Amino acid sequence: MNVGEILDYINEFAPWKYAEDWDNVGLMLGSRKCQVKKLMVCMDVTSKTVKEAIDQKVDLIVSHHPFLFSKLNSIDFDSVKGYQISELIKNNICVISAHTNLDVAIGGVNDTLAQAVGLTDTGILKSYVPKGFSIDLGIGKIGELSNQLSFKEFIDMVKQNLQIKNLRIIGVQPESVKNAAVFCGSFDGDLETIKRSNVDVLITGDIKYHTALDAEEMGLCIIDAGHFSSEHLIVDKLKLFLKNKFYNIDVVCSELEIDPFIFA
Fold it and tell me: Among 74, 120, 181, 260, which is least packed by CB within 10 angstroms?
């Protein structure tokens, strides 16, 4: 296989045009012509995952978060990003990133998060029509639990299924949960959409302080489960997507990634 074939396949289930205007997705580093015998899937391209890829003799990294996001005015090999770029080039490792296009895709990050917290019959929380498409995609998902749970039971289930010990609760806690919404990663602060959806709770990965204050005043309940925990679920699923298509290459997940936030 070559990098171009893998790029084209990702474009089939999570089209690059699905990405938000502010996002950066696709081939971050390398060439479509580069041959791939082994690839590694990860959340973030960091110095740790770059070294892991080198040690594993990986030809391609497929990350969720964009390797190149902010504008680079220079590539200083003594800087963190410059060092990573240098090491990747020296070791002939290419990088592909699939971010908001993967968030909204069918079977993507939001669908995976919804499934993980027990939601069925999911629909679109907030409509989004990407450029060049006439279809409505969902920024976030809304659904219901197969069985109504007490709020404590629901919290315990979220912790268990997302493999976390801590989470933050914002706003008015309902006695029970039947309908819920998910919004992977950083919630964009559109509280009116949450209010109109009439869900018992929203599960997301990041909430800003002033958004939390407004949510409380509006009588909403939001669970901040952490950015890493709300999105890392896609790593294993992305591995399966790629392995089932490209059975003749070795597909692995990073084994070194952990949530950068530590609760003491």
Answer: 74
The DSSP code for 38 is: E
Using a 10 angstrom Cβ sphere, with 0-12 exposed, 13-18 middle and 19 or more buried, the burial of residue 57 is exposed
Q: What share of the chain has pLDDT > 90, as a percent?
A: 88
Of 49-53, 129-133, 223-227, which gets the smallest average pLDDT? Answer: 129-133
Element housing 207 (H / E): none
94 class by beta-carbon count within 10 Å (0-12 exposed, 13-18 middle, 19+ buried): buried
Task: Judge whether 161 and 117 are in contact, CB under 8 Å.
Answer: yes
Reading the block at residue 172, the tokens are: 């008015």
How far is Cα 12 from Cα 102, in angstroms, rounded to an integer? 11
Task: Identify the structural domains of the chain with CATH numbers, from first to last.
Answer: 3-99 (3.40.1390.30), 106-230 (3.40.1390.30)
Phi, psi of 60 (to 5 degrees): -145, 135
SS3 186: strand
Choose between 110 and 264: higher pLDDT: 110
Q: How many residues does the chain have?
A: 264
| Interatomic CA distance for residues 6 and 154, integer angstroms | 38
Q: How far apart are CA 173 and CA 17, in angstroms?
A: 38
Q: Is 125 helix (H, G, I), strand (E, B) or coil?
A: coil
Stretch 154-176: mean pLDDT, rounded?
96
- CA dist 70 and 215 (Å) reads 30
At 134 the pLDDT is: 67
Residue 240: pLDDT over 70: yes
